[in-house]
Each structure stands twice: as structure tokens, then as C-alpha cells.
Amino acid sequence: MGKFSDLETFICVCETESFTAAARRLNVGQPAVSKTVARLEQQLNTRLMLRSTHGLRPTDAGQQLYQRAKRILNELAETESLVREGGAGLSGRLRVSSAAVFARIVALPDLTAFLQANPRLGIDLLLDDGNLSLIEEGVDIALCTGSLDDSSFTARKLGEIEQCVMGTPAYFSSAGVPLRPEDLAQHEMVVYQRRSGAENWSFSRHGETRALRLQGRMRVNAAECLRELVLSGFGATVAGEGLFRSELQSGAIMKVMTDWQLPPLELWAVFPGGHFAPAKARAFADVVQQALCREP
């Protein structure tokens, strides 16, 4: 068996949880399947499969190999299909993970045009403000904001958006308009709990920098909840302008302290498959980046 055949056999064993069932699916003898897995373990110098009361299951290393090997073989099949069909477009299903509010932040690209250009492609859009396990969920590309916590993934910066202090005109009319960073201590601040857990902000103006730790009675980890609280007039927040794009245009939300600058919010595409990210994931990242370039 060749290297790719060995990986295909290993994938089949992981999915069937049995040497015998894998051999039946592959139409080969059971000894050939067990020898293939043993050969892979010897080559990698690590245990890949464990026996349990329910059959075979992959070790942590085996699970990593399964996920990455499956991506590599899917990419190879996709490339072969494109070559055979003369570049007729992308195919299969693309699994995209994103914060539920990402469309508000960056105005997601026109998926209709992307799908129309690739009629054999489908998209699973997983919207979640929590920490999805990208490998376990089989995610091809994750759209993330802020600093990246996991350096083991391949990432590509797509762009940045400005951050500012915002609230409703009615709230600021009642509570007063803050003029300096330290004034925010006297306001009801709705704090978005970022993945890093940090709520320290650095404000700068004319070469002067002031650090501030935001305090607030309301702390949320879902951006849609933050939007509702601010729009209800409960308090102010520090967030990316895109979170309230339409409300800023209509006047329902206003920016304050505009002479003070905050670090921009970085937007990233994360590829759990590393350098073997599918072509369809890279193409989707290109479309998102192009949409960001068109943002004012």
C-alpha cells in the first residue's frame, strides 16, 4: 500500500471502529488492515489506536492524524476533480465557524454570488459566540476577531475595524457625555468578555496614552446580548463600529470621545487544517477579505 492508501485505511478504521469492518468496507483482508495501522504507528513512533469494550478508538494522536489526514485526502480529491473538470468550480461542503454577530461586524460577503459561481458547493455556517472545537466539528475555516489564542492553527489576517465608545443619545443625555477615559468609571458600561479574558483598554490622543480597565455591572459573552442592552439605553460600551453600523447611520447610536483612539479590532481567518486548508476555504477567505476592503 502507498502512503495515501495507508491513510485511507487508517481513516476507515477510525470511522468503523473495527479492523474487520474496515477490511469489509475496503474489500481487503483483516490482517492487511491491522498491519497497515501497525506500520503507521511504527513510522510515527506513537500509538494511534486503543482497544476498548466498544471496539477500537483513536488515541489523542490518532484523532489528530484522522482529522488532518481526512482533510488532506479531501483536498487531494477536490484538486483532482478541478483538474479533470477544467476548473469548473469548487465542490463539496464548506464548514464555516463564526461568531453569531460576525455579519454585523464586517457585513458578510454576498454568499449568493459566491454560491452561484460554484454551483456544486454547499456551506454549513456555524454561528456560535462560544469556543467551538474546530477539529472535532470538522470546521474548514473559522472567522475570528481579536487576538488569537491558539497558535497551532494556521491563520490569515483579513483586516481591521475601528473601535470606539458608543451608546444611545438618550443614555448620554441622562448620564452625561464622557470626555476622558477616566470618565467611563462613572458610567454604566456593558462589557463584552473577550476570549482572552482581558478587559484592559488603551486610549491614545496626541501622543498621550491612558490605560483603563473597564468595570461594569453587566458583562456578557454574546455580542447580540450586548447590542440589546446598549440599544435599550442601559449603558455604553466599547466595541467595533460595525456592531452598530446601521444604528450609527440612523442616529439611534452615537459615538463619543472621538478624539481618543483605541486599538483596531483585528479580523482573522483560521484554518484548522493548517497548510492543507481546502481550496474552498481559502477562496471563502478571499471573498471575505475583498468585502472588508470595500468597507468604508
From TrEMBL:
InterPro entries: LysR-type_TF_proteobact-type, LysR_HTH_N, LysR_subst-bd, WH-like_DNA-bd_sf, WH_DNA-bd_sf. Keywords: DNA-binding, Transcription, Transcription regulation. Gene3D superfamilies: 3.40.190.290, Winged helix-like DNA-binding domain superfamily/Winged helix DNA-binding domain. Residues 1-59 form the HTH lysR-type domain. Belongs to the LysR transcriptional regulatory family. This is LysR family transcriptional regulator.
